[in-house]
Design goal:
Number of strands: 0
Radius of gyration: 19 Å
Largest sheet: none
Number of helices: 11
Distance between the termini: 29 Å
Structural class: mainly alpha
Order of helices and strands: HHHHHHHHHHH
Helix content: 55-70%
């Protein structure tokens, strides 16, 4: 895969110069990956609404106060930078920004109640705050890819097929349902196998693209993928 300038490399470039599009690239990245930050804040002991305020304030500061200029280019993964910067924010800066509430500084995050409930439910499982961040980060990546897959399917038949096939995106997923899905689609099991294979291939390609957008060097892509697979398995 050719490694074009991605959202994160564009953002890192803005640390040294005023590159056009860097702010929108950063907003897109943090908007997609607020869930790991929220979960990290909750694992660090912040109550529900305080965790939302912390994430909102932190992201507003990144975008509007150019805090991204403090990014260390030798730590090229966006995941690594974001966790480190947010950890420092929780320790040192949240008291100073309590007046910057949700929706402040023209930065609006979609704190979906269903997603918040899912994240909060994971608190009951315990575990390490950093490990939980990486696990949620991996889940957020997968969610982004599934959104892209769904967005590429505009007509009703394609949407219905994707809704039926998405359960097979994991290698372990839903083998017991294969015949029922084949029947619902009006195809043979062999045809269903081909459709599942194509969807998984497309999923892996888009996942690599999403990961590539969060690292600075193309050589980091495979290493980051391996790390996130381990995070999901933990």
């Amino acid at each position: 895969m050719e490694f074009h300038t991605t959202r994160w490399t564009l953002v890192l470039g803005a640390a040294d110069s005023q590159l056009p599009g860097a702010d929108s690239a950063l907003a897109e990245l943090v908007g997609a990956y607020w869930r790991p930050l929220y979960q990290h804040a909750r694992f660090r002991g912040l109550p529900h609404h305080d965790a939302q305020d912390a994430v909102q304030s932190f992201i507003a500061g990144l975008i509007t106060q150019k805090a991204i200029r403090r990014a260390d280019r030798t730590r090229g993964r966006f995941r690594t930078f974001l966790l480190s910067a947010f950890g420092n924010f929780l320790l040192n800066e949240h008291r100073k920004t309590k007046t910057l509430k949700r929706g402040g500084a023209n930065v609006v995050l979609a704190f979906d109640d269903t997603v918040l409930a899912e994240v909060d439910a994971r608190l009951q499982t315990g575990g390490d705050a950093v490990a939980s961040f990486d696990r949620e980060w991996a889940q957020a990546l997968i969610s982004q890819v599934e959104k892209r897959l769904a967005a590429d399917r505009q007509d009703a038949d394609s949407k219905r097929e994707f809704d039926l096939l998405r359960q097979f995106l994991s290698q372990e997923g839903a083998d017991a349902n294969r015949q029922a899905v084949a029947d619902a689609l009006g195809v043979s099991r062999e045809t269903l196998k081909v459709k599942v294979h194509r969807l998984r291939t497309e999923f892996r390609r888009l996942l690599r693209e999403e990961v590539a957008a969060t690292v600075e060097d193309p050589h980091e892509i495979e290493e980051e993928l391996q790390h996130l697979r381990k995070a999901l398995a933990s």
